Amino acid sequence: MIIRANGKSLDLNQPIVMGILNVTPDSFSDGGKFNEIDNALAQVEKMIEAGVSIIDIGGESTRPGAPDVALADELQRVIPVIKAIRKKSDVWISIDTSKAEVMKQAIAAGADIINDVRALQEPGAIEVAAESGLPVCLMHMKGQPRTMQNAPHYDNVIEEVKEFLQQRITHCEKAGIHRDNIILDPGFGFGKTVEHNYHMLANLEAFHQLGLPVLAGMSRKSMLFKLLDKTPAECVAASVACATMAALKGAQIIRVHDYVETIDALKVVNKTNQNK
Ligand code: 7PJ
């Protein structure tokens, strides 16, 4: 499998790393300040050097319990950063947003992938994505971030997530998004208990039945820090274990905070796979 955007192509025949860029503004700013942009550029340079394939930039916290973020705030956090990266590098950039206007401005600033935890269900999003011709990542979420962890229930989490993703694929294709431009994500931690998350990881192969690339994001999430009774930052080794398992189960894109450690682990996975 291969994805293409803006004259570039990305080979998905070996698992690649999507590195999470932290652009949360400091407490005295709404984002876009010089020192914040400088810090983002320094992080990106290190990520590229280490072998990260995609830089994921998000200005909306979708962590459990997080409040909604206003459009103006989200724009101010991400657009100057995307512009600054694009001035220096043609690295793949994904924009982690659900808002059509953020997508539009991010694309104009040089983003390559639309990564939407709401799977293009917000007003105007599917149209912007279709118009752009860019790859999109459709993620499953049950509920909304503020309340999604309040006793989520499924009769069969794998089947229900697959069913949702299949419906979104159909909607996207009807809206003019080419099937080759769709990436799927079961949405670890988004309206799922610890048990649901491990059931999805244990059965990750099931999502490949939809015939599209799979993205997995488990880095520092509650399925790890609740299990281990640690803080998210203490879950580096556990996050790498998840990335390794996801790669062994065929996930094409792994979204992580700890890119140095994850890239080492994936090199070992790839070397092993080449010796089958
Ligand atoms: C994900 C994401 C994920 C995709 C976040 C966090 C929450 N996008 N954005 N998949 N998670 N595609 O990193 O803890 O799992 S934000």
Protein described:
By secondary structure, this protein is α/β, with parallel strands linked by helices. The protein has a single domain, classed as TIM Barrel (Alpha-Beta Barrel). Helices cover 42% and strands 15% of the residues. The protein contains 9 helices and 10 strands. It has helices at residues 34-50, 71-88, 100-109, 125-132, 157-175, 194-202, 222-228, 236-248, 259-274, and strands spanning 2-5, 8-11, 16-21, 54-58, 92-96, 113-116, 136-139, 182-185, 215-216, 253-256. Strands 8-7-6-5-4-3-10-9 form an 8-stranded parallel sheet. It has a two-stranded antiparallel ribbon with strand order 1-2. α3 (100-109) packs parallel to α4 (125-132). The longest helix is centred in the middle third of the chain and has 19 residues, at 157-175. The model has no long low-confidence stretch (mean pLDDT 95). The site of ligand 7PJ has 14 residues, from β7.
Question: Which structural class best describes the helix and strand composition?
Answer: alpha/beta
CATH topology grouping: TIM Barrel
Total number of distinct structural domains:
1
Lateral strand order in the biggest sheet: 8-7-6-5-4-3-10-9
| Main pleated-sheet profile | 8 strands, parallel
CATH architecture: Alpha-Beta Barrel
CATH class: Alpha Beta
Please tell me the overall pLDDT. Answer: 95
Bound compounds, please?
A: ligand 7PJ
> Cα distance, first to last residue?
20 Å
Task: Say how many strands there are.
Answer: 10
* Rg calculated over all Cα atoms: 17 Å
Q: Which H/E pattern describes the elements?
A: EEEHEHEHEHEHEHEHHEH
Q: Percent range for helical residues? A: 40-55%
Task: Give the helix tally.
Answer: 9
Could you name the ranges where pLDDT drops below 50 across 5 or more consecutive residues?
none
Shape: globular
Which range does the strand content fall in? 15-25%
CATH 4th-level superfamily: Dihydropteroate synthase-like
The protein's oligomeric status is single chain
